[in-house]
């Protein structure tokens, strides 16, 4: 027997619910596909940025090593470097998922003076500044990937629940109600035949 009383009103209500559930599944499926496409693009971008960071780090450490050799330990000079506070985070929405957009002021790196430094230290500063910009970009991309992956997982769960539980349940209940109503109509038809056939 169906979970609801087999009436025409319930049959119409179930048809509407089934139509809405089917529409919801189609929307969830579209959302999932869009989020997957967005995530795939970001994964490629993250791999590209990671490669650039690795190459820039190698160059920056080589420059720092050359500066350490010529100037001695540069740790004291590094203490006088200004703090970077131009980082700004905004958000953009992709299918209801808030993705960060990290920006940093595009100012040239501050040099540490001319008295106790040389060009090798300046070169190291420039390379580490480039690494900082790339790291901000990578943080934005990786955070977006994690958020998209979580949203895809949630959307997949909803789509699976609609496809495998809710829609089949509605279809089964619709079928059972339709059969019960047809049976009731046949009984009514037979009863009317019997009533018409009786002599008065």
Structure description:
The protein has 200 residues and is mainly alpha-helical. The protein contains three helices and two strands. It has helices at residues 8-71, 75-79, 119-197; strands at residues 88-94, 97-103. It has a two-stranded antiparallel sheet. A hairpin with a 2-residue loop joins strand 1 and strand 2. The model has no long low-confidence stretch (mean pLDDT 84).
State the oligomer: single chain
Task: State the distance separating the first and last CA atoms.
Answer: 39 Å
Strand content: 5-15%
Helical amount:
over 70%
Name the helix and strand elements from N-terminus to C-terminus, one letter apiece: HHEEH
Average per-residue pLDDT, rounded, comes to 84
- Tally of extended strands? 2
Low-confidence runs: none
Structural class, by secondary structure, is mainly alpha
Q: Describe the main β-sheet briefly.
A: 2 strands, antiparallel
- Widest sheet: strand ordering: 1-2
Q: Categorize the overall geometry.
A: rod-shaped
By DSSP (H or I, 4+ residues per run), the number of helices equals 3
The radius of gyration over CA amounts to: 34 Å
